[in-house]
Design goal:
Radius of gyration: 17 Å
Order of helices and strands: EHEHEHHHEEHEEEEEEEHH
Distance between the termini: 33 Å
Number of strands: 12
Length: about 250
């Protein structure tokens, strides 16, 4: 089965639509959504509704820290992110907020683990920024492949049976076979707010039979997404950064 894995959509309808269209064109048969449906962007209602529809059709969906923040005041964020979350709270209805609140932190599926941040302490929202972070996550699960987001920058880590770590930044549209005998941690880029210098939306395709992973990008209407952020009175930097990919 060909899986399309998305993370960090962040209320960006234009980016989410572009990724869904691109993934379906490439033959995706099932979707996995790794959280952070809200925050930053100006279309949280549409994004959450779409996630709910995909979940009803069999998609795997987990909770991100921005999703958590919608329903609790204990999550602390930087000032701009906090403004966006408070604005989002006023936009979502009861059913949408309940959907986010009831999402699991992790999902195990055969030899795969899906989580927003990392596997060792999913509720602490740690970032995987280096091999030491990846190793901590990998040793906490027997899964052959762990998929996570949260960082907004693509990366691929692996650990051998002797705990030797490797890491690299995968190239767009170049398949990588995730060999047996190693554990893998696939850190996705962001659909709605990439931070790796490439402003196009990011997602991953994973072939469950061949164990090949392909990091993909989807260009989208950045100007429309940015303008809607400005029109709704959200912090200007949340709009400006979309065209910069940072």
């Amino acid at each position: 089965m060909l899986l399309a894995v998305f993370s960090d959509i962040h209320g960006n309808r234009q980016a989410f639509e572009a990724c869904l269209k691109a993934a379906r064109a490439k033959g995706a048969e099932r979707f996995v959504l790794l959280g952070d449906f809200v925050g930053y962007g100006a279309d949280p209602e549409w994004v959450v509704d779409t996630a709910m529809e995909l979940a009803a059709q069999g998609a795997v969906v987990v909770r991100g820290n921005h999703d958590e923040a919608v329903n609790t005041t204990t999550e602390t964020m930087n000032a701009e992110a906090q403004i966006a979350i408070e604005w989002t709270r006023g936009r979502l209805d009861v059913a949408q907020r309940r959907f986010l609140a009831e999402l699991p932190m992790t999902v195990d599926e055969k030899e795969r683990l899906y989580v927003h941040s990392e596997a060792s302490q999913p509720t602490r929202w740690h970032y995987v920024r280096a091999t030491a972070d990846a190793a901590k996550s990998l040793i906490s699960t027997p899964a052959h492949v762990t998929f996570c987001g949260h960082v907004h920058r693509p990366a691929l880590y692996s650990m051998s049976v002797t705990a030797k770590m490797t890491s690299f930044v995968p190239k767009t549209d170049v398949p990588v076979q995730l060999l047996r005998g190693r554990q893998w941690l696939a850190v996705l880029g962001s659909v709605g707010q990439p931070r790796d210098g490439d402003p196009s939306a990011a997602f991953v395709l994973f072939d469950t039979e061949s164990c090949e992973i392909t990091y993909c990008r989807a260009p989208y209407d950045i100007a429309s997404a940015a303008n809607k952020i400005r029109e709704n009175g959200l912090p200007p930097w949340l709009a400006d950064r979309l065209s910069l990919g940072r």
